[in-house]
Amino acid sequence: MKHILAISGGVDSIVLLDMIARGELLLHGRTLQGGDLVVAHFDHGVRDNSANDAKLVKNLAAKYQIECIIGHGHLGKNPSEGLARTKRYEFLRSTVCKGDLCKIVTAHHQDDLLETVLINLIRGTGWRGLAPFWSHDIERPLLNMTKAEIVNYAIEHGLTWTEDETNYSAKYFRNRVRGLTARLSAKQRKQLLELNQKQTKLRVEIENILDEVMNSTDESHKISSIVKLPDDLAIEILRKIVNEKLTTPQLKRFLKNLKNAKSGDIFQPGGKIQAGIYNGQLTTSELPHKIR
Q1: pLDDT tens sequence across 6-45
Q2: Does pLDDT of 219 surpass 70?
Q3: Same domain for 252 and 152
Q4: Residues 174, 286: one domain?
Q5: 161 and 33 together in one domain
Q6: What pTM value is reported for the model?
Q7: Least enclosed by CB within 10 Å: which of 47, 49, 53, 181?
Q8: Distance CA 244, CA 274 (A)
Q9: How many CB atoms lie within 10 A of CB 198?
């Protein structure tokens, strides 16, 4: 299995690359060799000096003798965080993996986790928002490290990294929450981490049950079977059917449409998903992305 190291050039990802290359960070309990790894960097095309990030990543990959793939986007000035994230993962999954069995390895750390939990709490999250960073093809081995610990490691090992000035822009909600995260007391951090751990355990149990439902019967895509379920459960089934590409409000509208649908109906619930009703069965597909 290939492990795709998503390296931005920031201190977090540079430390991730260095620790894995040195054998100081194990994945699946073992040290990965160069042939098991691919370094991947996506240049969003947002900043004028972003080519410097790609150059740094390419040089480091060569130093560690790891294959490196550079992707280029043209998102223009001030794209949304959501769009930037979507384009990055599209590149990692469709271009770097190319259909192979892959695991994407990211440099998300403990502070990133706490930021995401706080963001979801502020936005009035459901249970999923308290157990973020959930994906079958993404690994985050630095979640036990704080940002301070990562920076200390980089300094101690003489590493060079780049700073993305957009990380300090108050325009982005996450950056504003980052200041709140930095002011958390040790007790508050501990409480949030414990909440996350409990919710993550619960999420594992729920996801396993949903997988069993999806895999054990042909009824999962049958309209009559979906709409007769309690709404909360029906929404979770729909979430699995669309691979979690719709928000909860979109899923609620999706379910409402299904309850009034007839054979031959086609509609777009959002998230570039197209749904169709044929002979009482629900089919879904992802609309192609526009070429910019």
Answers
A1: 999 999 999 999 999 998 888 777 777 767 899 999 988 7
A2: no
A3: no
A4: no
A5: yes
A6: 0.77
A7: 49
A8: 14
A9: 12
Residue ranges of the alpha helices (H) in the chain? 11-22, 50-63, 81-90, 110-122, 147-156, 173-182, 186-216, 223-227, 231-241, 248-259
Average pLDDT of the residues in 190-216: 83
Q: How far apart are CA 131 and CA 290, in angstroms?
A: 32
Do 258 and 163 lie in a common domain? Answer: no
Alpha carbon separation from 120 to 97, 132, 174, 177 (Å, rounded): 30, 9, 11, 11
CATH number of the domain within which 60 lies: 3.40.50.620
Within this chain, do residues 142 and 266 fall inside the same structural domain, yes or no?
no
Angle between helices 147-156 and 11-22 (to 10 degrees): 60
Cα dihedral across residues 81, 87, 93, 95: positive or negative: negative
User: Considering the domain boundaries, does residue 205 fall inside one?
Assistant: no
187 lies in some domain:
no
CA distance 288 to 194: 40
| Within a domain: 291 | yes
> What is the DSSP-derived secondary structure letter of residue 288?
P
Asked if 173 and 245 sit in the same domain, the reply is no
Q: Provide the domain limits for residue 241.
A: 219-292
DSSP state letter for 14: H
Pairing state of beta strands 67-72 and 2-6?
A: unpaired
Do residues 100 and 2 make contact, with C-beta atoms less than 8 angstroms apart?
yes
Task: Say if residue 158 is in the same domain as residue 21.
Answer: yes
| 287 Rama sector, left if φ>0, alpha if ψ -120 to 50, beta otherwise | beta
Structural domain count of the chain: 2
d(CA 239, CA 223): 14
Q: Are residue 59 and residue 173 in the same domain, yes or no?
A: yes
DSSP 242: T
Cβ neighbours for 260, distance < 8 A, ≥ 6 positions apart: none
213 in a structural domain: no
Looking only at Cα atoms, what is the longest distance across the chain?
64
